[in-house]
Amino acid sequence: MIHNPPTLIGFIITVVFYGWAIIEGILQLLGMVLHNPALGWALLPYNPFAVKYIAAFKPPSITHLFGTDNLGRDLFSEILYGTPTEALISILVVGSAVLIGGLIGMISGYFGKYVEEAGMRVTDMFLAFPAIILALAVEAAIGRGAINAAIALMVVWWPTYARLFRAETLRVKTQHFIDAARLSGSSTISIVFKHIFPNVLTPVISYATIDLGNVILSYSIISFLGFGVPPPYPEWGRLVSEGFQYFPAPAWWYAIIPGVVITIVVIGLALLGDGISEYITSGGITA
Description:
membrane; single chain; transmembrane; transport; 10 helices; MetI-like fold; elongated
């Protein structure tokens, strides 16, 4: 993968994104625990919450790399400060989708018949609605906020993984080592989790990597529509939404730059996921 330029670019973008999210997230958490919010922006050029009207709508420059917003806040600092939320939600949603969808998909594929029919019909019910629309409906019912947005996305994100795990389980369960496990007296739980799960997980890895970007994009849409964390906490999607009020003048950068950042991260994860998929297909990882 290292010798594949697109994959290498995707890897670098992914490492930078999640690496910074971890560092900044730890600082914000320490700030909360120690009742010292300033720790959250200790590594940032500016306090992302500091209002300075005299500096409003400053274009990108050496002083303000991404320019300033309508309240004079440094856009670069706001984007960096909001990174942990985007990263955490992507991990939570994809992780829960793998667990929930994986469990339903493997049980359906392994047992077949009525169990498979019931599991797949429930899955089809969720797949019948566009995920983002259903997520908005769920969040409208439970309330706004980052946690509720994550829950809403978790509710609608697992069906695709259920289908994927089911298909892979149907393939794996016909292998001879599964028959050997049955003949050796292994329990159903042991066969599913010790033999089937590791072998169906490999092809899921590349899809999940790409899907991290899809979650970030979907969460950005949710926050763009005003269903994310309420102001003044900086969210990438809401920054785009607020910036559109001042596009193209007096501040074209207000909406464009956060949108570009979202695009770069999503493309980076897609490039890495494609690279992993090619690596698996070429035999770099064997099930």
